[in-house]
Design a protein that fits this description.
single chain; about 140 residues; alpha+beta; two-stranded parallel sheet; globular
Length: about 140
């Protein structure tokens, strides 16, 4: 388990995609990319998935130390019921919270996420939110 301070620090440090080739997100995709901190001390994984039947259902996620979800953006999925019983509609953002991991979802802050209905913009905004410095091109046919 991570402390909240560790999780916040890991989310906030500048990161880079290891592979700069385009991120392919066709219908039914489940893509994983290695990411490293700019100083090379920490490794991360960037996950992207897209629904096979509901093609607008998309998830972008950043994991630390391969297993800890730091942040996850859910687009056009089911509403999320938080541990306290509150319901958050999609799109929403999951953030690591000590003791709960990524079980809490939050409505998107329009300052951070300009247009969640635009897949390309949502991807760029999520990368910026996670401090990814070299956003690779996203190719998502049929959007």
């Amino acid at each position: 388990m991570l402390t909240q301070t560790e999780a916040d620090t890991l989310l906030g440090i500048p990161k880079m995609f290891v592979d700069s080739s385009p991120l392919l997100l066709p219908v039914g995709a489940d893509e994983h990319r290695d990411v490293v901190s700019q100083d090379g001390r920490e490794s991360f994984v960037f996950d992207a998935s897209r629904g096979a039947f509901r093609i607008t259902k998309v998830k972008f996620q950043t994991r630390a130390r391969r297993i800890f979800v730091l942040a996850r953006l859910d687009l056009d999925g089911s509403p999320r019921t938080n541990p306290d019983g509150t319901v958050v509609q999609t799109p929403h953002l999951h953030l690591y919270q000590e003791g709960y991991e990524a079980k809490w979802a939050y409505p998107l802050n329009p300052t951070d996420f300009q247009d969640p209905d635009d897949l390309g913009q949502a991807y760029v905004d999520f990368c910026r939110f996670c401090q990814l410095q070299n956003t690779v091109p996203l190719q998502a046919g049929g959007w």
